[in-house]
Fold these 2 entries.
Entry 1:
Amino acid sequence: MLFLSFDTDRSGKMSSYELRIALKAAGMQLNNKLLQLVGLRFADDNYDIDFDDYLTCIVRLENMFRAFQAMDKFKRGRVKMNIMQFLMLSMNV
């Protein structure tokens, strides 16, 4: 299990550093700004992420990556969408 592999101190939580490495291992290259946003959304006050929040984070990111890739028909790294598409993607619908 990926979570256990990167919870190096066996605390049952991942530090932001451990999360960065785990996301990279899962094929999700996020820049520093996005990692900060993930931390704000999913981490606790100590910037640690427990298993449940990690799982929610991974599922949401994976869904977002898949949706983006499906919309990026020419593989240019950008998509055009209207407000409804954006909201549906943002809400994981």
Entry 2:
Amino acid sequence: QVDPLKDRGRLIDELLSTYVEPDLIQPTFLIDYPIEMSPLAKKHRDDPALVERFEAFIGTMEVANSFSELNDPREQRERFTQQRQMHAAEIERSIKAGELPETEMIDEDFITAMEHGMPPTGGLGIGIDRLIMLLTNKQSIREVILFPQLKTK
């Protein structure tokens, strides 16, 4: 069953989560994601339908996510606009329900900052809690969370 409000990026993400990630037992890097999945990532040098992004998996768990940051303000505005258009029905439904939509507005402050100049940039997010889970052979992130008072029962 396919939700008609889901865009291509969300569908690909769901397919990866359901059919690919559960089988990634050995350390694996997934690279070069479709552009629809990463609105803040720079286009791939050789294929404009992809972005420069990777995720690292160990034992079916994502432990790192990285990409080259998009630093072209015009392209960033286009992507924000496309993202808003793709999610227009979802945004409208959230607003009517009195909720703050996930993709509410175009981040004008971010685009203005980019217009003043943004050097080539990249980032790497590492799930320390997930790495500790792997190293200690724990099945739940709650068993290794750094702030026990925040654990939910």
